[in-house]
Design goal:
The complex is a heterodimer.
Chain A lengths: L1 E6 L1 E3 L21 E3 L1 H17 L2 E7 L4 H11 L3 E5 L9 H13 L5 E5 L10 H9 L3 E5 L1 E5 L2 E8 L2 E8 L2 E5 L11 H7 L4 E4 L1 H4 L29 H14 L5
Parallel strand pairs in A: 1-4, 1-6, 4-5, 5-12, 6-11, 7-11
Antiparallel strand pairs in A: 2-3, 8-9, 9-10
Chain B lengths: L24 H28 L10 H13 L2 H4 L2 H29 L7 H32 L5 E2 L2 E2 L3 H28 L12 H7 L7 H25 L7 H10 L31 H9 L11 H4 L6 H25 L22 H6 L5 H5 L7 H14 L5 H13 L30 E4 L1 H6 L1 H16 L4 E2 L10 H5 L3 H17 L4 E4 L2 H10 L8 E4 H10 L7 E2 L3 E4 L6 H4 L3 H8 L5 E3 L28 H11 L4 E4 L2 H13 L7 E4 H9 L4 H4 L9 E2 L13
Parallel strand pairs in B: 3-4, 3-5, 5-6, 8-9, 8-10, 10-11
Antiparallel strand pairs in B: 1-2, 7-12
Helix pairs in contact in B: 1-8, 1-12, 2-9, 4-5, 5-6, 6-7, 6-8, 9-10, 10-12, 18-27, 22-24, 25-26
The chains are: A alpha/beta, B mainly alpha.
The structure holds iron/sulfur cluster (2 copies).
Chain lengths: ~260, ~725
């Protein structure tokens, strides 16, 4: 079975995010970069599938040179090879352009199933997986928490408000992974060492023959407003304090 | 030769005809030769097995220190005596046997060659001494039988089931009957000798003499025949004993002293760093073959005495781990595997790799259950108290390394901890950039701002990120400032020390963390370091030198005790209530820092210090070491609650600690036991700062239920000797 896992490198959830003064993006200095946690679920599911049915896992990622680390992380977990799409024109690509680049790279290799994270924790668009499926003209199951693959089809569970859908689709297809799908493995040390020698193809936009023109552009980034400090209502008389709380909720917070 | 002749004993010519009715020298020699051959073959066979499996390791360097260990632990039984009751039991048998063997040798020499001094008062004293030590052995055996079969202490078993074997009974019977038959021979001899003219010194052999007095009614000729028989029985048992040594627990007569001689001379708690990650093919210990021969030999020295189990927090809290069981299970497994491996090695043609059949059982996972493996807190109790210097912890960590590095198969919560350490250099995974935010108001300078300081205060993860730990860091920083100590911190450049990674088997992550810290510290030319966490203290002091980080490292209680002794810290307030000090394993057993924390506490006016039952080297772990801090504790009782109970038992109002992990554990224990109203856990730095009375105690130190500090008129700190 030919399995593809798409990964994105994102800032660690705990990293200190500072918006550049000109609002064009974030300051990258001092940031610890990690694999998007939802993509990790995808990689883990790809590896499990390979272990069950045999085959090969290829990781594909779009991003600058540092992205190689994240590809190596997936290789250390057990993927066989990687494709690194590295083109300065794609560094701040929107969901469509990213999916387009991924689609172009994936079209060049055999694939039976493609995993993506359901969204990336940096841009939070949640679109790449779906656009990728459209561009490849294959079915998709999104936000999947349970997956069964066999006999040329995939059965996926997708939670929705108050219920869950059980979806069945033919292969090839795109699955976007949600938390709960699995527990991503910790890479073994031989895995880490071997990953250093596994093949990774580095390609740019020209080699893939794709347009880098985005459909959507980030106009400006601004940090969220600082949270105002909490207020402690002083006083001895509980009734007076309660009255003050009501007054503040009504007049200042305007929530009641 | 003296036998056969009729002797006349006169005063001044005391002596004996040891073998006067046993003139069968050839038969005796033949049997002795057989016994010796069985002994020698058994030992040779064992020797081959010892050599069959295991990586090389040098344990013969520095003979001086090794002989010292042999003398103190072997000859003088120092570690055995640490537990008085079984210590005395063993000493009676050990010293008794030691003397009796020399006595028997003198006896035999006298018989075969003749010793000119074997008469007169020498002989009388000799008789008396032999008598006393014979009795000692007998008493020892009686105690041993009583202990093992009637008293049945838990340590001579596992989880309430005694682990007695037939071997135990055979050995005790052998020893007991050697002594009893010895006394009987003597009694018969004395019984007959009483009739000889001038024989008056029988009382020197008081046991035999007393026994001989009970023999009335036996004819002297019968007594002679009985003597002959008894002598042969005695001799046979002795020869049987010798032949039995290599095939039984008696082997420890050889292996235990050997192990004491080959004890680790490395710093306590030492773990051999993994040398080469790039080229090695396997990491940690997955099979017997991954141990060194010495690690396997350890299990041959184990006497199943159970001392290690007796203070193991994992075992005592009902987890499946017992250090004794680990060693014994490894021994059983080795005894299954070693003959197979040896046979394969012998069968292999010269210069070819032997075809060794795959083991039927997994060592890590089946022989040693994973719940056992992961229950260890690395508290060092087992190593510290094993009388024969067995090293349990490196084996456990080695097997953990295998699970973590090779198979990446370990607790999910620990995986998360390691990811956090990888991504944010702290186990909680709090943003690394927040590391310097523990006390912005104190204005402690970083080395980047001013590297010209005497000490680096290595705050560590708890002091930097944990709310409770931060308060300790603040108290310590304030004390240091007040005492005029010149120090700085690394701020956001500081990283996790890596202790939890190392002890949890993730040596790779540990080395990355260690190297990152060393680079930063050495970059600033750091020479002296103060740690407020014993885990960092131990790692920086003893493990960082492997990677080129050589610093003078102190724990804050050492610094505090010193500053108090120098008069640079003075106390304006006195404290009330009962305090108890909980020894952190990584401070006490790992680094022998027992007195400094106590000295610091005792210097505080009014402070009443009481010891818990288990303290100093026998202290009971809080449960957080060996990466257990980050793992669920879902089997048995909670170790921290048990320790809290021990503090409650001595009515302590405050549990004083020197470790942020212990602090968390004790605080949780107090909560679990619903004692928040009457008890508190505090770090020594907090207690000291509080008593310095610089700020209003109520406002500043998080003293909770600590006794209200009252102003006393010029309370003088008692001057203590500096303890370093
Ligand atoms: S180190 Fe402590 S917890 Fe681990 S086996 Fe030894 S005594 Fe038990
Ligand atoms: S390992 Fe040491 S302390 Fe434990 S049972 Fe064996 S000899 Fe006794």
């Amino acid at each position: 079975m030919n399995i593809v896992a798409c990964v994105k490198q994102v800032p660690d959830t705990e990293a200190l995010i500072k918006v550049k003064p000109d609002g064009s993006g974030i300051e990258e200095g001092g940031i610890k970069w990690v694999m998007n946690p939802y993509d990790e679920f995808g990689v883990e599911e790809a590896l499990k599938l390979k272990e069950k049915l045999g085959g090969e896992v290829t990781v594909v990622s779009v991003g600058p040179a540092r992205t190689m680390e994240t590809i190596r992380t997936a290789l250390a977990m057990g993927a066989e090879k990687g494709i690194h799409i590295d083109d300065p024109a794609l560094y701040n690509a929107d969901a469509y352009t990213t999916a387009n680049a991924l689609a172009a790279a994936i079209k060049e290799i055999p694939y039976d199933i493609i995993f993506c994270g359901q969204r990336a924790i940096d841009g939070d668009m949640g679109q790449v997986g779906s656009i990728l499926a459209e561009l490849l003209d294959i079915p998709q199951c999104t936000i999947v928490t349970k997956l069964d693959v066999g006999d040329g089809k995939a059965t996926a569970v997708k939670p929705i408000e108050g219920a869950q859908l059980v979806l069945e689709t033919s292969l090839p297809c795109v699955i976007t992974a949600q938390k709960g799908l699995n527990e991503p493995r910790y890479a073994s040390l031989p895995g880490i060492m071997k990953a250093k020698k596994k093949p990774v193809d580095v390609k740019n936009a020209a080699a893939l023959g794709i347009s880098v023109e985005p459909k959507a552009k980030i106009e400006k980034m601004t940090p969220p407003p600082a949270r105002p400090p909490g207020k402690i209502i002083e006083g001895e008389d509980p009734a007076a304090k309660a009255a003050e709380v009501i007054r503040l909720l009504r007049e200042e917070a305007k929530v009641i | 030769m003296a036998h056969g002749a009729k002797h006349v004993y006169t005063v001044g010519n005391e002596g004996r005809e040891v073998f006067w009715n046993a003139p069968y020298e050839l038969i005796l020699f033949a049997f002795t030769a057989v016994a010796m051959a069985i002994f020698a073959y058994g030992l040779y066979r064992r020797w081959q097995l010892w050599k069959a499996i295991g990586k090389p390791e040098d344990r013969t360097d520095n003979a001086g220190a090794r002989i010292q260990s042999l003398i103190s632990n072997g000859l003088f039984q120092i570690k055995t005596f640490r537990d008085v009751y079984p210590g005395i039991m063993h000493a009676l048998i050990f010293f008794g046997f030691f003397v009796l063997i020399f006595g028997a040798a003198i006896d035999a020499t006298q018989f075969h060659i003749g010793l000119p001094f074997f008469h007169g008062s020498f002989y009388l004293w000799f008789s008396l001494i032999m008598e006393i030590f014979g009795l000692a052995v007998l008493l020892g055996v009686v105690i041993a039988v009583y202990r093992r079969y009637i008293e049945k202490p838990d340590r001579l078993g596992y989880m309430g089931t005694p682990d007695n074997t037939a071997d135990d009974a055979i050995v005790l019977t052998l020893i007991g009957s050697i002594i009893v038959t010895g006394f009987l021979i003597e009694a018969l001899r004395l019984y007959v000798n009483v009739n000889v003219d001038g024989f008056t010194w029988g009382m020197w052999s008081f046991v035999g003499y007393a026994l001989s007095k009970t023999l009335t009614g036996i004819g002297y000729d019968t007594a002679r025949v009985l003597h002959k028989w008894m002598w042969w029985i005695h001799t046979f048992i002795v020869l049987g004993f010798i032949a039995y040594i290599p095939w039984s627990r008696l082997l420890h007569i050889i292996t235990s002293p050997a192990n004491q001689y080959m004890m680790s001379l490395k710093p306590k708690g030492y773990l051999e760093p993994i040398g080469d990650f790039e080229t090695a093919e396997s990491f940690g210990v997955g099979q017997l073959e991954d141990f060194t021969w010495k690690q396997i030999f350890d299990s041959e020295a184990c006497t199943r005495c159970g001392r290690c189990q007796d203070g193991c927090p994992a075992y005592l809290s009902g987890k499946p781990l017992s250090p004794k069981k680990v060693i014994q299970d490894l021994k059983t497994y080795w005894l299954e595997r070693a003959p197979v491996v040896l046979a394969a090695q012998k069968a292999a043609p010269e210069g070819e790799e032997p075809q060794i059949p795959e083991p039927e059982k997994l060592m890590v996972g089946e022989v040693i259950d994973l719940h056992e493996l992961w229950a260890c807190t690395n508290c060092m109790y087992c190593i510290e108290h094993c009388p024969v210097c067995i090293e349990h912890v490196p084996k456990i960590v080695g097997m953990r390394q295998y699970k973590v590095l090779m198979e990446a198969d370990f607790a999910p919560e620990l995986q998360l901890t390691y990811r956090n350490m990888e991504n944010n250099s702290n186990p909680w995974g709090i943003g690394a950039h927040l590391r310097q935010d523990w006390a912005p108001e104190l204005g402690v300078k970083t080395l980047a701002e001013d590297a010209n300081v005497e000490y680096l205060f290595y705050v560590g993860c708890s002091g930097s990120f944990d709310d409770r730990g931060k308060k300790v860091a603040v108290a310590l920083a304030k004390i240091l400032k007040e005492a005029g100590v010149s120090f700085g911190v690394l701020g956001a450049e500081e990283g996790c020390c890596g202790d939890s990674a190392m002890r949890g088997g993730n040596e790779y992550l540990y080395q990355i963390l260690a190297q990152t810290n060393i680079e930063v510290m050495s970059g600033y030319g750091v020479k002296k370091i103060i740690c407020m966490c014993p885990h960092g203290y131990n790692a920086l002091k003893k493990d960082y030198p492997h990677f080129g980080g050589n610093y003078e490292v102190y724990h804050h209680t050492e610094i505090l005790a010193d500053l108090i002794a120098q008069g640079r810290i003075t106390f304006k307030k006195s404290v009330e209530g009962l305090f108890t000090y909980h020894d952190s394993c990584f401070l006490g057993r790992y680094n022998d820092v027992y007195d400094q924390p106590r000295n610091a506490l005792k210097a505080i006016p009014g402070l009443n210090l009481v010891e818990m039952d288990r303290s100093y080297a026998k202290s009971f772990c809080c449960g957080a070491g060996g990466a257990r801090m980050w793992m669920e504790e879902d089997i048995g009782e909670r170790i921290n609650d048990m320790r809290t109970d021990q503090a409650i038992a001595v009515n302590a109002g405050t549990i004083a600690v020197g470790c942020p992990f212990c602090l968390t554990m004790m605080a949780d224990g107090i909560k679990d036991r619903e004692k928040e109203e009457s008890m508190d856990a505090l770090d020594i730095a907090e207690i000291v700062w509080n008593a310095m009375g610089i700020e209003e105690a109520a406002e500043e130190a998080p003293s909770g239920e600590a006794p209200p500090a009252e102003e006393t008129s010029e309370a003088e700190a008692p001057k203590e000797e500096p303890s370093e």
